[in-house]
Amino acid sequence: MAKLYFHYSTMNAGKSTLLLQASHNYRERGMASFLLTARLDDGAGAGLIGSLIGIGAEADTFDGTSDLFDAIRARLASGGIACVFLDEAQFLTPDQVWQLARAVDDLGVPVMCYGLRVDFRGELFPGSAALLALADEMREVRTICHCGKKATMVVRRGPDGRALREGAQVQIGGNETYVSLCRRHWREEVGDQAAP
Question: Structure pTM?
Answer without folding.
Answer: 0.86
